[in-house]
Automatic annotation (TrEMBL):
Signal peptide: 1-26
Record carries keyword Oxidoreductase: no
Every DUF305 domain range: 61-209
Protein name per its UniProtKB record: DUF305 domain-containing protein
Residue span of region Disordered: 265-303
Length: 756
């Protein structure tokens, strides 16, 4: 039976509701505002009561404008110093652009505030008090700038002005993060153009500041295979391009596609209409904040996002005359011949990302982290949220026939495998530490995996995986323990170390410690060093299945603790900071010298003690991703020498015998892959093995170098490094063994140091 209820007759529901609303509106109701505790309520008019809702700007908008006036004024003051202190054309051009834009923008901001009956100056804040704003030069820095002349003035002016411009960008970004700010279309347009203009000026100033450097690496010509090169105290032995199947023949550099001219015009037209929709005209906008359409047409524009790192070369491992180069697409195997020159013997396609490799006898272990990896090495990937075909973890290959490797084992892990470390090798098994940095996979896909569930201590976060691989049957490899190495020893709280965030003013915003990126083990010392996102850590690995944390440190200059390397005696640890994640230009002339660098820590009574910092000294351009990355010890008796990859910053050899005063003794660098756009390229790893430096170049291929005698390194010391003996004649990136030298070699080195 169907019932119908007739609610109203003779009038529509809409009419009745309208009448009710009209009646309510006509009621004489007093609107009051209670005030603070104890205050008498006051009566508000309807206009006063709704004023907040209709407010087109916020107090934060007002504070921003007031502060930015002072911020801009300091830039004008700095520009006013130029005329009497330098005749450099580029510096005078910067000052001219500042005079043309900043004064105009100051007038706009004053007018914006006055039109809204807001004070132009922030209450209680004089000019000097604003020196704490982002990027503002201190009075002492302004005095130093006024006292400088010539090239010294040029350098200091650019350094201060770049930081100043970066500060303005940060101020806008912080404003836009706040709820309800920049709702006024005119203000939003203005602040957005401030970011665009300041960033464009930063690029110009950084480029010119780099040109003031006398380092030959500073301004190298770009090119995928014809880039300009600079080399010092090294011999370039060989360069091998990536083999077929490991690059896109139509786009070997992995460049983002350029937006066709027609699309640019359409975008420009759309932007113009969008602007008119936001406000009727540009009368209130400062002229400097309006783009010149002729300049816009000349700019080359590219797709905003590139593809995956599908064919990127990654890490290296060595055994005897075998070298294996990992790749996001699989791996390539080489035999090392005369002078250490590699010869390709096999290419193995097995996509899954990361691709870090280690060798143990006839087994090769590979790290796989991406969600597209398949158990069968298939090329089609995995797109389903949950799939039994997905593989993330450690692949195990039998390489007894290196020309036809066979996958013989797999260990599925909750966060994949970013890196791994072979801890021990017996006649029966391998013990491997696995470090996963990816998201925790679905429990429906792997039942042992629990994400960040409050109160659930089974979470896969805050742990490492300890894996056992039976040598007789690697298919039985499995996780045997997942120690919570970051737990607070007193409370047992899993998140017991760095919680994420910055360390105070002018410090890095550092990642939370819920994973290790690299764990480097030194088995003969029962010691491991972990670069663990927010902390540097050392572990006692006397019981390999249950590593015990001995000490941990934070560093205000580190954004992401990436890798760790012991010196040959195991009493100093070199940690690297991967500021920017490896895909950003972090070695520009005005980048902080202690960010994206190496930090050296001595181990004293089981504790880590800071000693010093080193960063690549050569300024790089804005199309060169550059930051500290993977390297290894060069075994010179009695000295601490390290070779390191800096992505598109090249390869650098560093002496840290005195860790408080490290310095560079050799280098090689190429110009950027492309002059117009930033692509992820450059050296992933640079390792010393049997007398040569082998470096995997992400986009181009593999380079081989030999050390040359110099004032920093004698021929006898180089010969000693070439003659050093490794345990088992094997090199895996995250497993260190002490090297040994013959007495004859040691005598020759000693004689060379005393002039014998």
């Amino acid at each position: 039976m169907i019932y119908r209820l007739r609610l109203f007759s003779g009038a529509s529901l809409a009419a009745i509701l309208f009448a009710s609303a009209a009646t309510a509106s006509a009621q004489d109701v007093t609107i009051v505002q209670p005030g603070a505790v104890g205050q008498t309520p006051r009566t508000l008019s309807e206009d006063e009561a709704t004023r907040l809702a209709r407010n087109a700007y916020s107090p934060a908008d007002v504070a921003f404008m007031q502060g930015m006036i002072v911020h801009h004024q300091q830039a004008v003051d700095m520009a006013a110093l130029v005329g009497d202190r330098t005749n450099t054309e580029e510096i005078m051009a910067v000052a001219g652009r500042i005079d043309a834009s900043q004064e105009d923008e100051i007038a706009f901001m004053r007018g914006w505030l006055s039109d809204r009956s807001e004070p132009v100056e922030m209450a209680g804040m004089g000019h000097a008090a604003h020196s704490g704003m982002e990027g503002m030069a201190t009075p002492e820095q302004m005095e130093a700038l006024a006292a400088a002349r010539g090239t010294n003035f040029d350098r200091l002016f650019l350094e201060l002005m770049v930081r100043h411009h970066q500060g303005a960008v940060t101020m806008v970004e912080e404003l836009h993060k706040q709820r309800g700010t920049a709702a006024d279309p005119v203000m939003y347009e203005f602040t957005s153009e401030v970011v665009n203009d300041q960033n464009a000026e930063i690029e110009r100033m950084n480029a010119f500041l780099a040109s003031l450097s006398d380092d030959p690496r500073a301004t190298l010509r770009a090119g995928i295979f014809d880039a300009e090169e600079a080399i010092s105290n090294l011999r370039h032995v060989a360069f091998l391009r990536k083999p077929a199947g490991f690059f896109d023949p139509e786009n070997p550099a992995g460049l983002r596609p350029e937006i066709p001219a027609d699309d640019k015009a359409e975008d420009a037209q759309a932007d113009e209409h969008a602007g008119h929709a936001n406000h009727a005209d540009h009368a209130e906008m400062p002229s400097a904040a309006i783009r010149d359409p002729e300049v816009e047409e000349e700019e080359r524009r590219y797709a905003q996002r590139g593809g995956m790192l599908s064919f990127s070369n990654t890490d290296l491992a060595f055994a005897g005359d075998l070298m294996v180069a990992g790749n996001y697409h699989g791996f390539n195997a080489y035999r090392l011949g005369e002078d250490g020159v590699p010869r390709l013997v096999s290419s193995v396609v097995c996509p899954g990302g990361q691709g870090d490799v280690s060798i143990a006898g006839d087994l090769l272990i590979m790290s796989v982290e991406e969600t597209r990896g398949r158990t069968d090495c298939g090329l089609e990937g995995v797109t389903d949220r949950v799939s039994e075909d997905r593989f993330r973890g450690l692949r195990i290959f039998d390489i007894s026939d290196i020309t036809r490797p066979v996958q013989v084992g797999q260990v599925q892990t909750c966060r994949g495998s970013h890196t791994h470390s072979i801890v021990t090798q017996t006649d029966d098994s391998l013990i491997v530490y696995n470090s996963g940095t990816g998201s925790v996979r679905e429990t429906d896909e792997l039942e042992i995996c629990i994400g960040d569930v409050p109160g659930d201590d089974r979470t896969a976060l805050f742990r490492i995986d300890v894996v056992e691989i039976p040598l007789a049957d690697p298919s039985l490899a499995r996780i045997v323990s997942s120690p919570a190495v970051f737990a607070d020893p007193e409370t047992g709280r899993l998140a017991g170390l760095w919680q994420g965030g910055d360390h105070g003013d002018n410090t890095q915003d550092t990642r939370r410690t819920d994973q290790c990126h690299d764990i480097t083990v030194f088995p003969s010392l029962n010691l491991a060093a972990g670069a663990c996102s927010g902390n540097g850590i050392i572990f006692d690995i006397s019981d390999p299945l249950n590593p015990v944390r001995k000490d941990e440190v934070v560093d205000p200059g580190f954004a992401y603790w990436h890798s760790a390397t012991f010196n040959n005696t195991g009493d100093i640890v070199l940690f690297t900071d991967e500021w920017g994640g490896g895909g950003r230009p972090r070695c520009q002339a005005t980048d902080p010298r202690e960010w994206g660098a190496n930090a050296f820590y001595a181990i004293e009574d089981g504790q880590l003690e800071y000693r010093g910092t080193f960063k690549l000294p050569a300024p790089q351009g804005d199309t060169e991703n550059c930051v500290a990355h993977n390297g290894s010890i060069i075994p010179v008796p009695g000295r601490n020498i390290f070779v390191q990859a800096w992505y598109q910053g090249g390869v650098s050899v560093i002496d840290f015998t005195d860790p408080a005063n490290p310095f560079e003794i050799a280098y090689f660098d190429r110009g950027p892959v492309d002059a117009d756009q930033l692509v992820t390229a450059g050296y992933w790893s640079a390792y010393w093995y049997n007398g040569r430096i082998y470096a995997t170049e992400i986009a181009r291929g593999i380079d081989v170098f030999a050390l040359e005698p110099s004032e920093h390194l004698s021929a006898a010391e180089i010969a000693a490094a070439e003659a050093a003996s490794y345990q088992g004649d094997v090199f895996n990136p995250q497993t260190q063994y002490p090297v040994t030298f013959s007495q004859e070699t040691l005598n020759a080195v000693e004689d060379s140091r005393v002039g014998g």
